[in-house]
Amino acid sequence: MKQKIINLVNHPLFSGGAIVFVGNMTANVINYGYHLVMGRMLGPVEYGVLASLYSILYLVSIVPSSASVAIVKFISSIKDSEVYSVYDAINKFVFRISVVLVAVILLTSPVISKFLHLKNTSPVLLVAPILFFSLLTLVNQSSSQGLLKFSGYVIPTLISSFLKFVLGVAFVYLGWSVMGAMFAVVLGAIVSFIYSYKFITKQIRVTKLKKIDLTPFVKYSGPVLAQALAFTSIFTIDVVLAKHFLDPFSAGIYAALSTLGKIVFFAASPVAATMFPVISKRKSLGQGYLKVFFASLAITAGIASSAILLFWLFPNIAIGVLYGKDYLSAKTDLVWMGFFMLFYTLSNLLVNFYLSIGKVKIVILPLFSALTQAIIIWFYHDSVTEIIHVSLFTTLGLLICLGFYCGYNLLYDEGK
Q1: CB 138 within 8 A of CB 160
Q2: Are 133 and 193 in contact (CB under 8 A)?
C-alpha cells in the first residue's frame, strides 16, 4: 500500500496535475476577483465593454495560441538533443505570426470599435501589445509543459493575473476606467513574458542548432488551429454578439453571466492540460493510456458538476455578493450558463484526448458546432436567455456526437 501511494504521488498525472491545478485555480481566483471587482467598479455598461475586449483578444490570438497544443505534443515526443533546435524554430515561427496579427489589430481597430459600439479606438489598440507578449509567453509556457516542467507553465499565468488585478484596480480607482484596466493587462503580459523566457532558457540545454523541418508541426497545427478556433469561438462569440445586439445594460449582464459560467471550465481545465502531455508521451512510447483518459474524464465531470450545483443552490451569493445588486437580474439564467459550460468543458476534453494521440479529424465536429452557434445567435438574440439557450443546445449536441464518436472508436480499437 505504501509503495502504491508513493507511485501515485510520483505519477506525472498526479504530481503535475497538482501543480497545474493549484496554480491555475489560484490564477482563476485572481482573475475572477479581477472581473468581480471590475464589474462593481465599472458597472454593467462599462464592464460589458471590458468583457467584449477580452473576447476580441481571445479570438485574434487563436492562430498562434492554437500552436500551444502542437508545441506540447512535439516537445514531449522528441529527443532531448533536439529540444533547443525545435524550441528556437517554433519561437521564431510564432513571433512572425504575432507581428502580423498585431498589424491586423492596428489596421482594423476602427471597424472593431464600431461593431462593439465603442466611443473611441484606444481600448482596442491596447489589445495589440497584450496579444504580442502573451503569445511569446505562450511558446515558453507550452515548451515547459511539454518538458513536464509544470511550474514554468503555471507561474507566468500567476504573475500576469496578479499584476492585472492589482494595477487594474489602482488604475480604475484613479479614474482611468476601461483604459486603465486594459493598460494593467499590458504591464502584466510584459512581466510574465520576461519570467517565462528566463525559466525556459534554464530548462533547455543549449546545443548546436539543427535545421528543423516544421512541416509536420504546421500540418499538425492545422487541425489544432481548427479545434482552437472552434472552442475559442464557442465561449467568446456569444459575448461579442451580445455586446453587438443587446442593449448596453443587458450586454453587461450577459458578460457577468459568461464570466461566472467560465468557473465551470477553468476549474476543470487543469485536468485536460495535464492529461495531454502524459497521454502524448505514453502514446509515443507504446504504453497504455486509456486509464489516464477515463480518470481525467471522471475528474473533469465531477469538478464541473460541483460548480453547477453551487450555482443552483446559491445563485444570490454567486451573483449578488460577487458582482453586486445591479446584476441580480441574471440569477435565473446562471444555471443554464453553467450547463452550457459543462457541455463545453467535457467536449473540449474529448477533443484534446484525440489530438493527444494524433487523431485530428475529430476537429470537424467542434468547427461545425461553433459555426452553428454563431449563425443561430445572429438570427435569435432577443434576450440574454435566448442567447444562452442557443449556446447550451449547440454544445449539448456537440457532446453527444463526440460521445458516440469516442465510444465507437474505443470499441473499434478493442476489436482490432
Answers
A1: no
A2: yes
Write the pLDDT tens digit of every residue in 342-397.
999 999 999 888 888 777 778 889 999 999 999 999 999 999 999 999 999 999 99
* pLDDT tens-place string over residues 296-336: 999 999 999 998 998 888 888 878 777 777 788 788 899 99
Whether the Cβ atoms of residue 108 and residue 168 lie closer than 8 Å to each other: no
Beta-carbon contacts of 376 under 8 Å, excluding residues fewer than 6 positions away, are 390, 394
Which of 345, 332, 353 shows the shortest CA–CA distance to 396? 345
Give the residue from 237, 268, 242, 244 showing the smallest Cα distance to 253.
242
- Please identify which residue in the block is written with the cell numbers 510520483: 10
Q: How far apart are CA 401 and CA 155, in angstroms?
A: 36
Where b means 16+ CB within 10 Å and e means fewer, 98-111 reads beebbeebeeebee
Integer Cα distance of 378 and 111 in angstroms: 18
Residues 97, 103, 105, 107, Cα dihedral to 10°? -150
pLDDT at residue 5, as a whole number: 47
Checking if the pLDDT of 416 tops 70, the result is no
pTM: predicted TM-score of the whole model, two decimal places: 0.70
Q: Which residue bears the cell 469516442? A: 406
What is the rounded distance in angstroms from the CA atom of residue 413 to the CA atom of residue 410? 5
What does the buried/exposed string (b/e) look like for 381-405 if buried means 16 or more CB atoms within 10 Å of the residue's CB? beebeebbbbbbbbbbbbbebbeeb
